[in-house]
Design a protein that fits this description.
6-stranded mixed β-sheet; alpha/beta; 29% helix; Purple Acid Phosphatase, chain A, domain 2; globular
């Protein structure tokens, strides 16, 4: 695996991540996957779309108002025809009933609803906000996307994923993921009082932060990622989750491009957007943010 263009190399410019179009791969198989091959949903972009944006891992929370303000400014000013939010938009989501009047979640809903008047919004669940449901999506005017989704745009296919399902070396997390994505578990959890769910989410966040501090984020299984790409007849995987923005060449003409996380504090400023046009993928910093 070779990495091309770390986050600093791409920041503030419109340099293509894939300089020249690559021919579609006709290969099948390749490597032994550690997980079941998922069903791949196919979505064809309308012919009039010219600009598509991809963002992920904002981890929005009231404790980081600058990150929220930058996200709000970006959504209300982007020239994109569509914005694809590829998971972990929120630091935590414990059910659509958390959007109480004057709550932080209600403010985020209002931003999304306003942005939807300018461009189409698509949401793919992450490991923090997988409990976002139909009610919130409808109120925010976002359309759900399964993970993974093959996006047809510009005569090519681009495979979209949050990315956590590809971190197969973290067996404990994959077991947890399978448990909490089960409808029975979700129904039981959502039946609990809101205060209890909020407390549980806080405990889980603290445990996650302690684990990441000790060993960092999990890594993508590139053998499995390549299998997904071949199954989708695509060459480029766009994903988040790992907080390691960059373009990674996996061999045989296959790439994975990692979306930047968003984090704005006194000591950090990360908020890149991946933008797809007829010229390919570019990493940009939103204007005015």
């Amino acid at each position: 695996m070779r990495q091309h263009g770390g986050v600093n190399a791409w920041r503030g410019c419109a340099r293509p991540l894939t300089p020249t179009p690559l021919p579609l791969s006709g290969c099948a198989g390749g490597g032994e996957g550690k997980a079941r091959m998922p069903d791949i949903f196919h979505f064809t972009a309308p012919a009039h779309w010219r600009t598509l944006d991809f963002i992920a891992d904002m981890h929005l929370k009231p404790q980081e108002p600058r990150t929220f303000a930058a996200w709000q400014q970006y959504l209300l000013t982007t020239p994109a025809d569509a914005v694809f939010l590829l998971g972990d938009v929120f630091e935590a989501w414990v059910g659509d009933d958390c959007t109480l009047p004057r709550s932080f979640e209600r403010r985020c809903q209002a931003v999304l609803r306003a942005a939807s008047k300018r461009c189409a919004l698509f949401f793919m669940a992450g490991n923090r906000d997988f409990l976002i449901g139909k009610k919130f999506l409808a109120r925010a005017h976002m359309q759900p996307l399964p993970d993974p989704t093959a996006l047809h745009f510009g005569g090519r296919r681009w495979l979209l994923s949050h990315g956590d399902a590809l971190c197969t070396d973290d067996a404990r997390y994959q077991q947890f993921r399978a448990q909490v994505r089960a409808p029975e578990w979700q129904a039981a959890f959502l039946a609990r009082p809101l205060a209890e769910r909020l407390a549980t989410a806080q405990h889980m966040r603290q445990a996650s932060e302690a684990e990441h501090a000790g060993r960092g984020y999990a890594q993508i299984d590139e053998t499995l990622a390549a299998q997904w790409l071949r199954a989708a007849d695509a060459e480029t995987l766009i994903h988040g989750h790992t907080h390691q923005p960059g373009a990674y060449e996996m061999g045989e003409g296959l790439w994975r491009v990692v979306v930047s996380d968003w984090h704005i504090t006194d000591s950090a400023r990360r908020l890149d957007v991946l933008r797809l046009t007829a010229d390919g993928l570019h990493r940009i910093v939103p204007d005015g943010v």
